[in-house]
Amino acid sequence: MMGDMKNIKDITEQELGALRVITFDIDGVIIPTGTQLQENADGTELHMKSKQLSRQFVENLKELKKHLKLNFSSGRNILYLKSLVNEIFDEDIFLQAENGNISWFEGKLTHSSHSADYFQKLKIIRERIKGMIAGGDKRIRGFEPKMFILTSHSDQMEDIPNLVQEVDPEGELYCLWTNEGYDIGSKSMSKGKGIKKLARHLGINPKEIMTTGNNYNDAEMLKVGTGVTVEPVRVEAQYFIEHQPDELGGELLAEFLLDYYRKRA
User: Fold this and answer.
1) pLDDT for residue 49
2) How many structural domains compose the chain?
3) Is residue 3 part of a domain?
4) Where are the annotated coiled coils located (predicted)?
């Protein structure tokens, strides 16, 4: 797979000069994976603990936003994204939550539209998974609060993808492993469509938006924009960035871009 991709160090100055936006995925890209989530069987208590951006990365973002608009695209909910970037949040910060379903552009929140049948399917899947929790299945820890997609935190297990297929024989839903559980949502919306929406909003070509990612829900976004994968073994892109296991590819990409802008100054 790596043979078809180029190292980010091989990107041309012309390509870098054309960039107007950098889009960061979150988990495993700019924060370490490892969200702790535990929900009790009846859903009345939810404990959730996640990582934060490093101090150095926040300082790098402050410098980077002098050159590029910053977008953060994630399967996470919009409140989490807003709290993650509060320190640098202004009109040049864009947020796209729940795999492209919710967008925050310059003070305006918009979202995708789905049928009652779609939400009914998600409800059935959620109730069935809750039944598994109530039955003592310790592999499932609970659900993240979301509006337009369903995210269950669990071990990797065939039971959940099989359940989605059973409830959705029409194949309208995706069920993607996130390293911490499963994102379940409509195939009609994706992070890639979110990037196209941002490009239309800004009046630019999607290739003027650099996109980063490390997982299956990032695949379309990496193709739509000028993609940089931080996990080339898992998901392809035009470019990849090398990093050690204790390094975050998104942090290294920010440093790479800053080196370019500093040399131009």
Assistant:
1) 61
2) 1
3) no
4) none
19-70 residue pLDDT tens: 999 999 999 999 887 666 577 766 656 665 666 899 999 999 999 999 999 9
- Taking residue 102's Cβ as centre, other Cβ atoms within 10 Å add up to 22
Q: Is residue 72 part of a domain?
A: no
Question: Taking every pair of C-alpha atoms in the chain, what is the biggest distance, in angstroms?
Answer: 62
Domain that holds residue 171: 116-186
| Alpha helix stretches (DSSP H) within 68-109 | 78-84
- Asked if residue 141 belongs to a domain, the reply is yes
Residue 236, classed as helix, strand or coil, is coil
**Domain membership flag for residue 23:** no
For 118-138, b/e burial (b = at least 16 CB within 10 A) is beebbeebeeebbebbeeeee
Distance of CA 164 to the CA centre of its chain: 21
Least Cα distance to 58 among 33, 24, 107 occurs for 24
In the DSSP assignment, the letter for residue 185 is: E
Q: Are strands 69-73 and 93-97 parallel, antiparallel or unpaired?
A: parallel
**CA–CA distances in Å: residue 57 to residues 30, 76, 171, 179, 263:** 8, 20, 40, 23, 19
pTM for this entry: 0.93
